[in-house]
Design goal:
Blueprint: E1 3-8, H1 13-25, E2 34-45, H2 54-57, H3 66-80, E3 94-103, E4 111-118, E5 123-128, E6 144-149, E7 152-157, H4 165-187, H5 204-225, H6 232-252, E8 260-264, H7 270-277, E9 281-286, E10 301-304, E11 320-324, H8 333-340, E12 345-349, H9 370-384, E13 387-393, E14 402-409, H10 416-430, H11 462-476, E15 494-495, H12 496-500, H13 505-512, H14 518-524, E16 529-532, E17 535-538, H15 544-553, H16 567-571
Parallel strand pairs: 8-9, 8-11, 9-10, 11-12
Antiparallel strand pairs: 1-7, 2-3, 3-4, 4-5, 5-6, 6-7, 12-14, 13-14, 15-17, 16-17
Helix pairs in contact: 1-4, 5-6, 6-7
Length: about 600
Amino acid sequence: MTATTKYSCSPSKESFYEAVQILITKPHVVNKRLWGSKIWLKHNCISLEETVTWPNHIHKLESVSTPEIEKYIDCMYNTMKLQKCDGDSISDCFEINILELFPKNYADKASYQLIIINKLESYIIFYNVTPSEVIQNTTPSFTYGIHIENDMIVLNAHCDDENSKSYMWLKNKLLPQFIKWTTETESNNGKKKICTASLTLVSSSKYFEKYNELKLKYGKDLVKIWPECTDPTKFVYEDVAIATYLLLLWEDRSLVKKQTFVDLGCGNGLLVYILCKEGHAGLGIDVRKREIWDMYPPEVKLKMKTIVPSESNLFPNADWIIGNHSDELTPWIPVIAAKSSYKCNFFLLPCCAFNFDGSKYQRVDSKKSQYTEYLEHVKKICEDCGFITDLDRLKIPSTKRICLVSNGRMYSPDTYKDSINKISKIFKEKHARGNVENDTWLADFKARESTQKVRNCTQLDKNLIESIVKIVTDCLLEGCSKDCNEQWSVGKIVEISELVSLIPKQNLIKLKSECGGLQTLLKNNHNIFLVSGGKVQLRYPKTVDQVITIQKRQKIIDTKIQVKPCWFHNNHPQGCPLSSINCSFLHSKG
């Protein structure tokens, strides 16, 4: 049977095709069971009549090995008598893709789809060609398609049960997302993005294999023993992903010998650890030592040092300079790599935007985002330094995931000395500010402090905190009756922006020096306030039983109950709604 779903929508052929390309190249965006995909075949053909008998020739792959897939592709060419076309325009009419879909769960099997696109009539059909003996649960096993019909986008699926999970996912998840892509491509028409494709410099299938290998080899154990206050699931797997990328990049560039590297601003040193364990010799340098450094084996070289860009901080023996969220050193990474040696390349993953002097970078063009403009700015620095520079999008749990990777120089080795002199001249004219002293390249460069300042509102003066809490609670409890016979009141729900206007300017200045400001202060006082969606209200106090249940679930051994004074008992007009026995806080004047 055929199940059909229709949505009112009339995209252009171009925006329909662009949405199709997103669905093929980034299926993991809508299918959360997927990690990514690999296109084994992308073939364009012109003749419409060639495709009339295609469905009769659709059969499953016999094997997922590379030779068998290549044999399958050759068989398609011969059986369907396809006329190859080198172009990739909307006028080529038909496009055929064979897609491998990688599961997010590494233990699951990959699935395969044969995808036929009619560009002129705006339809796409998905055939499941996964070998019969392979059990997969990442994509529907039945044939389905999407096409434009009058002013409608139509989903057709050849399934036995239109209430099946697979069809409901197509109907409720994939189709709405596909329609959203068609409207977004229409609205973004003409807007140039700096980097849209992921992992363009390495093999996606090799990356999938290597990442999961390293994740099992290093990731799980490191998450268990992580001593830092940062989130291990983010930082560990992000560095595993970056290490995977670098290892494949060095392998794919046919770099026979093991590489040497210096990671400037290495932080927790995990990237250095993985690369060293995989056989590459390197050094990590950071202004501040981390707790986890002492847990690494002796061969992992980590050094606490403040790097001031200068002739004395070059690395002539390094093949690569790595800048992974290197903050104020970010614009200096290509300069240091250029001056270290002709053979030296760099990998740079910018996060926070800094100028050469260590000040925050300010956007010039309001039509661009701060991040996009800064990437363009850094790429221009790389090119000024004479590097052939590629941009790529990493698969990491971060919004700042576009990296810059050098691929040699724009000039020959015999002109290296002259080129470095030219780079120095360009740098002084276009980028440098302040006077140069001795071998330091910029006299007013401000490095990061070696002691990390606590900026979470916990270090504020106690009287200041209490005064702000009183301003907020007075606002929330405005009009609250002191009559204890009435129902206990949690007061109003107020926007944080409204509360900000009530706080004296001098106190706001002190708050703004802290990460998060007022919102952070309120969240720190979570025993009083409930903060959600930019709004604040008073919290209903928790009982002893509720706290014990939560702590058991979180496996907290040291249970502290009725130790701190109850704010509501001491400050709420109606007191605490709980008895002194039931309240998880102490009912006494604090």
